[in-house]
Amino acid sequence: MLQKLNDKLEESIGRIKPFDEAAAELADRHSDTLTKPPGSLGKLEKLAHQLAGVSGRLWPDLSRKAVIVMAGDHGVCEEGVSAFPQEVTPQMVMNFLNGGAAVNVLSRQAGAEVVCVDIGVNAELSHERLVSRKVVSGTANMAKGPAMTREDALRALLVGIEVADEKAKEGIRLFGTGEMGIGNTTASAAITSVLTGLPPEESVGRGTGINDSGWRNKVDVVNRAIAVNRPDEADPLDVLAKVGGAEIAGLAGVIIGAAAAGCPIVIDGYISSASALVASRLAPQVKPYLIASHLSQEQGHAKLLASIGLSPMVQLDMRLGEGTGAVLCFHFIDAALSLMQEMATFESAGVSKE
Fold it and tell me: Which residue in the list 201, 322, 342, 347 is annotated as catalytic?
């Protein structure tokens, strides 16, 4: 069974097309003809370059957007790592589905769809808009043993790939990553420490707003989880299974699946970035498809992004998750494409370049 699942993963990775340098260079040349000093639009010009290279088209149509919110629970909550109880996970899932969360508000403003997936919530949920793809009913306590089996981690990855593939077939061309899962900053910190070498004292942040003693406990829990499980840094799937979470695995799959469909993916905060780190280790081909939306308040986030080779668009001191930063970044992408398509050239405007 494991081999069959591995084969499915490899098939998806094999569909990721390389970055189209010719299309990206064409976008650069067009940008230099517009009525502005070269490079004066900064990261917006870099976005136009990236989007052309990913799509193979000068101006891709990214008007159909979706943020995929993966939800799952974490057994490590037993260790008191969060300021909120685990019951908040299913409650917030219902809030997403009823349109009342921050990500819903920002998605409506951005013209994006919110797709909420139950991949590992430790509760029975039912709603007409819920995408129910439960792999586990919460993970095990990683401070005492593996969070998941290798097979469960693979299944969660494949769920993410399937969801991305389904949405791409419906016409979605721009993806954002979001998540919900009390305890998931602890798992993200553990993944970050193992895959980047960053000590838990630097990878562990305040999450939902824990105090100093709570932070010290969280650092200790991550240290114990790594010591107990001894995840293999050369095997991203082993790391994901032992100290990760179902929603983190699902988002790594969304990233691979969206890239396989030729779509750019906007990464949200710390948890989404941990998923991107796993995805980029499993499939380095995804890197050109990744756009880092913002720098969160989690202290390990900057070094985590740097380890992937990403630079965030903005810093807004956010730490909510849900995909909120990713959805805000959709506006920058719209702006970059509109500028490149609608600005006058020096020639058409009769403006001298010299």
Answer: 322
Q: Looking at the domain assignment, is residue 354 inside a domain?
A: no
d(CA 211, CA 48): 42
Same domain, 141 and 70: yes
Q: Please indicate, yes or no, whether residues 86 and 53 belong to a single structural domain of this protein.
A: no
CB contact at 8 A, 58 and 23:
yes
**In terms of residue numbers, what domain contains 216?**
65-334
Would you say 68 and 167 are in contact if contact means Cβ atoms under 8 Å apart?
A: yes
Asked about 322 being catalytic, the answer comes back as yes
Q: Say if residues 270 and 304 touch (Cβ distance below 8 Å).
A: yes
Kindly state whether residues 39 and 133 are assigned to the same domain.
no
Pairwise CA distance, residues 342 & 352, whole Å: 19
76 & 49 share domain: no
Q: Tokens for 260?
A: 């396989």
Letter for the amino acid at 56?
G
Q: Tell me the per-residue pLDDT of 3-60, one tens digit each, with 9 for 90 and over.
A: 999 999 999 999 999 999 999 999 999 999 999 999 999 999 999 999 999 999 989 9
Domain check: are 50 and 169 in the same one?
no
Rounded CA-CA distance 220/44 in Å is 41
Which residues partner with 174 through β-bridges?
A: 65
Contact 103, 323 (CB under 8 A): yes
pLDDT tens per residue, range 273-302: 999 999 999 999 999 999 999 999 999 999
* Predicted TM-score of the model (pTM): 0.97
